[in-house]
Amino acid sequence: MELQYIGISEHFATGEGVTYTISSGTKEQIIQFFGPYFSIGLEFYTFEAIKEALLECQNMNQDLIIQDQCLRTAYVLKTHLPAVANFIQKHGFGSFSYSFHYNLA
Questions:
Q1: d(C-alpha 85, C-alpha 94), whole Å
Q2: What is the pTM of this model?
Q3: pLDDT confidence of 65, banded at 50, 70, 90?
């Protein structure tokens, strides 16, 4: 079985806002889900790394979380997808995809 990852893309576009896209699977599956445009700047993390980051960022100052991409990914999971974050903490792996866009203009 191929190693499973969590992939995240934070896409900031002037006048268009921010798009967060997060997905799990093999690297190839994640890249296919994101498509060629949103795959630029894509970061991959193992479920174990995210599980550790979820525990680490529980009582951490948000300023410190912003500085570390893995912690920021865990924070986005915890705030946007709390059920997924809890599932990862308890079981270590789950299949999911999520995309969220908001306009800052």
A1: 10
A2: 0.86
A3: confident
